[in-house]
Design brief:
This is Antitoxin VbhA domain-containing protein. The chain is an all-alpha fold and about 60 residues long. It has one domain. The chain contains 3 helices and no strands. Helix 2 runs antiparallel to helix 3. It is flat, with a radius of gyration of 12 Å. The N and C termini lie far apart (about 35 Å).
Amino acid sequence: MNMSKGEFDRHFQTLQASWGFEGQELQKDEQEMLRRVCMGEISKEDYFRWIQNHVVGRDRK
């Protein structure tokens, strides 16, 4: 299912606030990639590959 940018922004704001309460906010690059997959600009596989290469690797440092 593809979302419009407005739908994504509305839902993401709520989600980010919830995660922020738990100290788990997404970084700007993570937010952008999530937006791209939700809007159908990239595949879920590309998104998961990006997470493995950028986020998981960054957390290991």
